[in-house]
């Protein structure tokens, strides 16, 4: 997932609720991977036994240490779904460092609770994203009807419900490429995380490009953003964000 310079954030601006939401939604992503493997190794009794063998008894390692090791491992393949660097648009970190000097931690029981009762991501892309949106306290709205989307169409997405609708469309048609065809409008960590989890669910190693609403049509062209063909929107997006996306479509339409 590529971010525009305007979307870079400061770690100090990240709230405690955002930290908890990231870890909880990332745990859903881990469970999604587990559900598609013949021998799940992140949650469950076999994973618990492997962890005890690794950590030893007694151990100074905590459930949070365990969760963060799992996230680092998953981020090596799916950085947009499991890396704080990507989700919170943290500057000054290399692409292979998902956490960096990350000192923010979730609440004390979060990791313990996930290993005691593994999260349920759902069986479909829509269910995973709906559960992740709930974790981020996003109330999904109503998405406008989607037009036809072919394999060469470039889709501008504004709103979380629109992102879920587009993800579902791409899940139903595997001739489409989510990370190549989709641009997500917004500066919120929650949207970036949903975009990264969508790529994971679709089996794509990279997420789509996320564009800051501070850009204009000229800046988009200068950044090498492809002209847009389709606008996918939902009523859970802020009015100003929808207006920005509509202006982009008019100024940067193919």
Summarize the structure.
The chain is mostly helical and 254 residues long.
- What is the helix fraction of residues, given as a range? 40-55%
**SSE run:** HHHHHHHEHHEHEHEH
Summarize the biggest pleated sheet: 4 strands, parallel
**Mass-distribution shape:** globular
Which stretches are low in confidence, meaning pLDDT under 50 for 5 or more residues running?
none
Query: Span between N and C termini?
Result: 23 Å
Please give the radius of gyration in angstroms. Answer: 18 Å
Question: For the residues shown, what is the average pLDDT?
Answer: 90
Question: Would you give an account of this structure?
Answer:
The structure is a single chain. The chain has 254 residues and is mostly helical. 47% of the residues lie in helices and 6% in strands. The chain has twelve helices and four strands, in the order αααααααβααβαβαβα. It has helices at 16-35, 45-55, 63-75, 79-82, 84-87, 110-116, 125-135, 160-172, 178-181, 189-201, 217-222, 239-251, and strands spanning 155-158, 182-185, 209-211, 230-233. The protein has a four-stranded parallel β-sheet, with helices on both faces. Strand 2 (182-185), helix 10 (189-201) and strand 3 form a beta-alpha-beta unit. The radius of gyration is 18 Å and the shape is globular. The model has no long low-confidence stretch (mean pLDDT 90).
